[in-house]
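User: Fold this one for me? It's Probable allantoicase.
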Amino acid sequence: MTADFAALPDLAGRLLGGSVLAASDESFAAKENLLNPWASRFSPETFGAKGQEYDGWETARRRPDASGAYGHDWALVRLGVPGVVRGVVVDTAWFKGNYPPHASVEACALPGHPSPAELADAPWTEIVPRSPLKGDAAHAFPVDSGRRFTHVRLNMFPDGGIARLRVHGEAVPDPALLDGLTVDLAALENGARVLDCSNMFYSRPDNMLLPGLARNQAEGWETARRREPGHEWAVIRLAAAGVVRLAEFDTTHLKFNAPAEVSLEGATGASPSAWTELLPRTRVQPDGRHRFRLDGAPPVTHVRLNIHPDGGLGRLRLFGDLTPEGTRTLTDRWTATT
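Assistant: Here's what I get for Probable allantoicase.
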């Protein structure tokens, strides 16, 4: 599966706090498996009390009612990070004789923390029309909508199994939750993104911007071993323009592949080219968290993280304050998508 939107964050991912709130049925396999961050796994002839075990969501076989209608099964997902959905992946990996022949996806936006009952009465918008599926395959569906959504509903017709659901898009935070506070300007959930990097052989640099602590070295950014002069780098677009006051570099779990030193540069503009040093080359240690104040740093919209010469980071945190321009940017983005 290849799609332009696949590089965008999975807004429904468990690592971002996504959750399957309810499902019509989960007789054979639990609905929560839909959002597992790893690729679906399968061990043949592994039978439990409910039959062959699947790393996915699987419902019972439907039978027609008195009118001859079969109905359909559904799963209700709260996005970990609300935002604009650019594409959806419905993956039927390992479901070969028990996959649904069709699926669709709807989305809605409600404030606060609605219950499944409250979401049932929400105004739902179809973002992926009823579409055919194949067994044991990932199906990529681009979404043409500029609206911000908080929840999606996956429908399968009439029943069967789906291994994974991915909802790729752009985070759109509520500016009321950020304005006037010290926030992590590099947090993916606040709208930050890695735009480019020199190397991502082992894992993607966007992992550094995920919430929480990395549970292992695969949940951060790690490069290949560098065999030539120079160093590796990643360019991060911040949530919006702001002043970074504290930088945290977390090498937890990176015991033999942490960088020797890190440095940080900042710039402003849509396509920054003039970089200003925010933190000079500074030594870091393996398997630990390192915090450095950045006194007197100028306002920036982008930062370039340099790791010398190579290695990885579990997390990068850039705590600071939005500028008035940054607040306006977030407010304009919010207004345009809600």
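One thing worth pointing out: The longest strand covers residues 73-91.
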